[in-house]
Input
Amino acid sequence: MNGAADRPIGVFDSGVGGLTVLRELRRQLPSESTIYLGDEARMPYGPREPAEVVGFTREAMRWFARADCKLVVIACNTATSVALETVRDEFPAPTIGVIRPGAAAALSATARRAVGVLATVLTVRSGAYVRALRDLDPLVDVAQQACPKLVPLVEDGKAESPAALDAVREYVEPLLTEGGVVRPVVDTLLLGCTHYPLLRAAIEKVAGRDVRVVDSATTTALAVREVLASHRLTRDGGRAEHALFCTGSVERFQTIARAIFHEDPPDVRETRLA
Output
């Protein structure tokens, strides 16, 4: 067996949202062991200053280094947008973000090159999705919408509540109606936060049948597969082991994880970063 290949993949998010990426990783790469870290004690990251998020991400990367991870996925869009390039140069493990894979997914889905991005305040402010989309297709039209109410609703277990539907309507409808002649103005909505797939039902209801809703989970897992192969780190069989850690409420985290995986997840353990 390849000892380096047997090491786990680390997945980092500000809370439970990155579990949507973890679920896809486990589906596509069933032989790979994983360690998930959710920094719930300090979420949401979206309203914070960039330097603060960079600091939190550095702490997470040091945590994964101690866990001897062979690759780290920064499954938090906010952390990817402001910290990925910095920490990628500071730590030896290959590190993948979710923004470029998400942009690729949106461009594969759009028919009219008209993409709306739902994201956190800091991700929108960074312009990371606009750059990623236009790097891949310079002619794409991009409209962004900051959604500060959505992450707290998901973290509170209210993704299916009337309040969540109202918040989604507040953020999605302007992307469908403002600034263009054709309706809907965008034909694709990119969920630029890994918490937002947990609101997919509400988002699809408001967006309607003519708008495709995409996220970065599938394309991020594909990117992980490619990097593992290129670094000869793909695990060849064996029993995969999975561990979940959070810095906040273990009980709340376990409840949401159970809903995402539709099974009892591994025991969630509390940890600290600072």
